[in-house]
Structures are given as structure tokens and as C-alpha cells.
Amino acid sequence: MDYQALSDTKILNYEQRKVAVFEEVKVLFTELPFLLDLWYQDAYLTQPTDKNQLAPGEEVSESFRSIYHLIIEELSDFKRSTKRIIRNTVENFEDTIKEHVSPFLVELVEQTADIPLAERDYIYANTSTPFHLMRNIVTNKTNFSEKETGFMGTELVDNQGTLHGFAELRPAPLFQTEADPSPNYGIDLLETTLSSLDELTADIFDLVSYQWMTGKRDTEGFIEFHSDDALLLRHYEKGEIPEKVKFKERDRFNIMRRVAALSSVWITLHDGPERVKIVNASEIDSKLYNFQDFKRMFDVGSVRIAFDKKTNKPKGIYALQIKPSTLLQPYLDGTKSSLGVLDLKVFKYSYVSQREHKRLTRYLSRQWKIRSIKGTVNQPFKIATLLSEMNFPARLNGGQLRDRFEEVLDELQRDEVIADWSYTEEIDETRVGKRGWIQNYWSQISVQITPPSVVLLENKKKISLPNAPLAESAPAETKPSTNEPIEAEYTEVIVEKTEQTEFVFESPKKVQELTPEIMRAKIDELGYSIRKAAEEIGISHTTLSRYMARKIKRQNLDNDQKMIHWLEMN
Questions:
Q1: Residue 185 — very low, low, confident or very high, per pLDDT cuts 50/70/90?
Q2: Beta-carbon neighbour count of residue 418 at 10 Å?
Q3: Cα–Cα dist 490/493, whole Å
Q4: Per-residue pLDDT for 472 more than 70?
């Protein structure tokens, strides 16, 4: 049926009324694609009995029957309906229609629980401050410095200056083999752990946490984690066949190297009712405060190692058993704080060139849940607070910072991570560009950021996850991937867990020299286009093209560091 061709003033039959109700009401629910997909089928699916019907029956969903009855029979005073009458009814009773549909949305959201993870739009994440801080420390290696204990450490301090705990990096080999009971493989574990602390590691933190909350555990509480679990979320497009999505060996091992970093982080949290405000983190003496013992964030069980068939050397971690430690579990089983929804598009954004997108998505997810509890969802966000959370590079000048800030919000709105955003007041452009305008003016004003309606709906509920069911029997080994085999020829070795379970993983190779020729050779080796390489590096493809053509006259140290890091990771 061509709805646009229907006259606004023609009296509609039942089949046409169904379509008119859908077409006029869909503008109210653009943030709920799963609902509109359902209603589209209800409206346009023609039944043999349609010509004789006056209202929809059991052949359509209960929610569509209800909205049809509301608009056609309750809110309209006319015995005969036209497109114009239905449109005016929707416009005049917008709030009533939304409120009427709300109970059906809760039921529909619950019905999506069995949808495969890669096909979902959201996962659940804890919204408490300690959990947020634990996730945040794995994103920035510069926060760590050597402590008196001999370990690299940092403090868990919130944006109010309140101390919540400490973190230390304690990397150690994950496995030993009979051929070499004390393997070293030339790996500097600490340096490799530090190099793995980035926004992608925070993604893995969220993914492993969610899978533990919702997936099958063995009798010891471990879940099975495969690198493909994360890669599917990054590269899979809805509608594809997951088994046909191919991943490269190096991508799989890069994911598992970050899982390794998570198992190397040890945490101690403040264990008293009071909190300690600090001014200078370097002056903290942990002996003065009541803290728990240090515990790992994640414990690891059996590990699947990929060995090169020709050299018998380990190539990296392929899959493993993992669980949150007893320190982290209370934040995932509902014991501490509440759960909110986290948009899965956070996994799609590049951890190099779109790290601000990731950080803001996580921050807003947490804030929307907190504000839904307090009833302050419509409260504006101060720009200075958002800048602190997004952590833009210090090299940006004032104009670049504002442009980048607005670009991120525009792109989140385009991707439907947020519904809308705007400044709460008109920008006084006469103050822009003057000395101190960022700190004294622009960062002190606020923006209104509206969450998608499905987020509002989810956050109104008290999300409680049932205890994940135990597997029928503890698996003897990690299940193989359902995807295509790793490209390199390898054999797999299952290493059972021991008391001290940590990772051995590949260390980024050191790049001694950066030249256009080296960049060209690596791009050709990987079979990449310049555009694809530039996207991974985090620079524009025109900049990379000009660099390799030796057309850049002024050296950009920041871009050089990005290219060096990319070479080391590849």
C-alpha cells in the first residue's frame, strides 16, 4: 500500500486505518526500533479477513491492538476516520499515547532477553562509583607509577577528590609447560600490561562482567571467554551470519592480551563507612586508613594456548576460563548498587581515534541510571564535568576543543546513543577566543543531553539478573571457536589452572625507526588500504598519504607516536 498516495480526507477502510495508525504514531517511538518493527508487520500484514473486520484481532500483537483501539475508538470523536483525523489525534494526545504504550514496552524489553548478544542494542553494567573507578583505571597507563611496595600503582579517586582504594599491577606468567618449566619468551610482562591499558581493555572489562552476570558458569564459577566474543561486537553488523565473520590471528591475540592485563590488576577498596578526601595523591599513607587486602579483579582458570606448528613457540592466548574475583562479584550479582543499560555501540567506536565517544557513552550510561533513581534525568550537564570525563588530549587549543566536543555529541546523536543535545543558553560568541575563555566561560556553562526513551524505560525498572545457571558439568577444556580457524597454522594446548594463574602473552615489538618506507611496507604486508590503516592509527587518510609521499614539511610528534604505536601492535 502506498500510504502517501492516500488522500487526507478520504474515509479509510480497516486495512487502511491499520496502516494510518502506524504511520502517524511511529514518529513518537523512533527510539524504539524493535517496537516499530513489530508494529510495521502488524499494520502491513494483510489477512484474508481484513475486508470484513472493524478492528484488529489475535492476528496482531497485543500492543498494536491496544494502540489502535485507543486512537480510533477512544481518543477520536469521529465515527469515520481519515488520515487527517488520525494525525490530529496523535498530535493532540501525544503524552497520553506514550503513557498508554509504556506497560507493553516493559514486556517487550523482557522478551528480548534471549536475543544473541551481537544482535542486542544494550547490555547491563553496574553504576556504582567503585565499579566505575575500577573500570576507569584500566584505560590509562599514565596513572600508574612505582610505589614503595615495588609495584606500579595508582589511587581510585572520584571526581570529588574522595579516595576509594588503590590498584597495583602484579603481572606474572600464566602457564608453564613441561618443555620449559620456567618460560620467559623474552617478554617484559609489566611493560606489556601497561601497554594494554586502554579503552578497548575497558570494553573487555564490561563484556566479561556482563557475560559472567548472564552466562553459564561451571561449578567453580568460571565462564568461558573467547576472543571472538569481543571481536563480534566490534565488527559484526546485524543480519550477518556470525559463523561467516572472519577475524585475523593478531586481532584475536590483541583481545586476549587485554584480558591478560585485567588479570594482572589487583585492587584494595576502602572498607569503612567514611570516605577520605584528598588533595595530593602522592601524600597518601594507606596505613592511616582501613582498607581490605589486595585482590585480583579477575581470576583465570584453564587457558587455551595457540602454538606455532612449525616452531612450537606460543603465539598467544586463544580462549580461557575467567571469573570476577570475590572483590568484584558483589558489584555484579546485585549485592552492591544497581544495574543500568550500556549501549553496545560503545564497542564499535575505535579505541584509538574515538576514545572520547567511548568514555562519554559509559559516563552517560551511569549518570542516566543514577538520575533516573533521583528523578533528575532532565538536569543539564556542566561542560567542565564532561570534559574531565572525556579526557581530551591536552594538545587541543580552545577552538579545537570546542569543535571536537560538539562533534562527539553530534556523532552520538547520529548513532542514537543519545536522543538529543543542546546548550542550555546561547553561546556568547564575542567571548569565544579571548584569553581564558575556555576555563572562565565556555566550560562553566551546561548542555542538555536527552537519553533515548528505551534507556529511560529500562532505568525505571529495578534490573535483577537471576543467578546464572551452572553448566551441566565443568568443562574439561574451553570450547573451540565457531568461527573460521585462525589464519596461522597452530596447535592448541589446554593449561589447567594453578594457584597462581596469570598470563603469558605477546609483547609489542619495539620500533627503532619510523620512516615512510617502513609504514608502506607494513601496510602492504597487512594488505590494508591507506584509509583502513589511517583509521586504525587514529589519523586522517590524507595525512598518512602525505606522510608516505614525504609531503609533510613540519614534523607532528603526536602523529609519529600514533604510527609507532600502530607498528608495535602489528
A1: very low
A2: 22
A3: 10
A4: no
Q: Cα angle at 211 between 205 and 214, to 5 degrees?
A: 140
CA 386 → CA 160, 355, 366, 442, 452, distances in Å?
14, 14, 13, 12, 19
H or E stretch including 232?
A: helix 227-235
Gap between the Cα atoms of 294 and 354, Å rounded: 33
pLDDT band at 470 (very low <50, low <70, confident <90, very high): very low
| Ramachandran sector of residue 330 (left: φ over 0; alpha: ψ -120 to 50; beta: rest) | alpha
Contacting residues for 278 by C-beta, under 8 A, at least 6 apart: 155, 157, 161, 162, 163, 284
pTM above the 0.70 mark?
no
User: Which uninterrupted H or E stretch holds 450?
Assistant: strand 446-450
How distant, in Å, are the alpha carbons of 115, 394, 431, 556 from that of 401? 39, 9, 15, 18
| Residue 258, C-beta contacts closer than 8 angstroms, at least 6 positions apart | 196, 198, 200, 201, 204
What tens digit of pLDDT does each residue of 297-306 get?
999 988 887 7
Radius of gyration (C-alpha) of the chain in whole angstroms: 27
Instruction: Let me know: does 75 contact 85? Beta carbons within 8 Å.
Output: no
Residue 241: Cβ within 10 Å count:
7
What is the C-alpha separation between 338 and 331, in angstroms, rounded? 8
User: Minimal CA–CA distance to 135: which of 321, 276, 290, 265?
Assistant: 265
143: number of Cβ within 10 Å = 18
Q: Where are the alpha helices (DSSP H) in 290-419?
A: 355-374, 383-390, 398-414
Per residue in 269-290, pLDDT (tens digit) is 875 544 444 444 444 444 444 5
CB 356 within 8 A of CB 326: no
Per the CB < 8 A criterion, the answer to whether 446 and 383 are in contact is yes
DSSP at 81: -
- Residue 367 identity (one-letter amino acid): Q
Q: Which amino acid is at 441?
A: Y
- Contacts by 307-313 with C-beta closer than 8 Å and gap 24+? 307/490, 307/491, 307/492, 307/493, 308/488, 308/489, 308/490, 309/489, 309/490, 309/491, 310/489, 312/179, 313/185
